[in-house]
Amino acid sequence: MPARNDEKEIATGIMTDRVINLSDSGGRRRTRKCPICGRSPEPAHVPFCSRRCADEDLRRWLSGEYRIPSEEAPDSDSGAG
Ligand SMILES: [Zn+2]
Known about the structure:
Blueprint: H1 51-63
């Protein structure tokens, strides 16, 4: 007799229905400026204005400028045995 282990955890998730209304004609357009230089972004490189700025942003990430300051507690492992 095989052990039957049915552990099913039903996670109740809240379904959030987001209705996106895209208005083509007229109206205001939320245009975000290039975070690097502040120019109007190009459709091909949003939210950046150019590939260069996109690369610059990536470089900053890699460089660690955008790194979130987190305090890491020193993990000291002491075992008496
Ligand atoms: Zn730019």
